[in-house]
Give the backbone structure.
Amino acid sequence: MKPTSPNFVIGLLTLWLAGAACGLASQAELTRIREALLRQARELNAEFAAFNKKYDGRELPPAEAAQASAERARFDERQARFVQAADGYFREDITYLDEAITNDLAAMRRLKLAKRAEEFEEWERLSTDARADLENQALDALISLGMTGAQRAATVVGSQNPWKAREMVARLKRTGVDEPYLLEAIGAVGAAKGKPGMAKAVNQWLEALAKAKDTYSVAKEGAKAREPKEKLNAALAALATVMAWGVEDPKLSMLVTELQLTTAAAYNNVARRIAADRIEQLTRLTEQELKSLKALDQRLKDHVQRRRQTREALETGDLAAKMKLLAPPARPAVPDSR
């Protein structure tokens, strides 16, 4: 295969920049430049390895030393031109990502969810412990919203479909939620007959669920608050799932299942907490809109992460970091948002 010369790569980048100025740039064109740079990088690595093998660190006679010095100078010049071309690519990639992120956020606004890129950048830097706290807040808010909706509803919960008492109890027990008052309240709804009896049992269930929610909230005092956050969140997730089954709300179930998506979408990095109004906005989305949000959220995270890594590589001049950005495994395909 014919080697990829530095002049070819720089020329290819120049042509691409001319196209970008005319509004012709796309991710496909960026990929073409990246692949050319990656080929040249591999060729440079092979050339450097061959150089080391050829001279092997041994003491050279004057004529051979002069030849080695000339070869190394030519290699250094080619590498410098490669770095110049790569930096040009990275700067244009940042420009592309800036626009892609703007388009991603605009798509989120069309779902009536106002988010800023800074919130996703902050989310990427959060520790596991901090994310667990935020997930706890999100679950607490989801359960509260589900209860509010159930209390406002004119119809009796469970009147349309059979009450999943056994499934609910089993789901709770798997995560260690075995408070008798809650399990008994679930059983009472399952056994209730007639609308008056059902309404009374449902109200008791909601009261028991609210009490259990407070018990498993990290922010509350008591013995349960000293348990690991992961266990507390698993219990809250079970409570939220049972709530969704009880009020027959598949969207609430999806928000619980996709908890990381829900938490990231509702995170406010200024307040450093979950924004309750965003949780409420999420519950208003249709199932199809929630599926669209899931894909959009992943795309936005990919774009934000790529931009941060690229900026850092340019600022530090770290050649290894630049090579990692060029390598396909570190650059998963992201659907073009333009």
About this structure: Residues 1-12, 15-24, 329-338 have pLDDT under 50 and may be disordered. The longest helix spans residues 62-110. DSSP finds 14 helices and two strands in the chain.
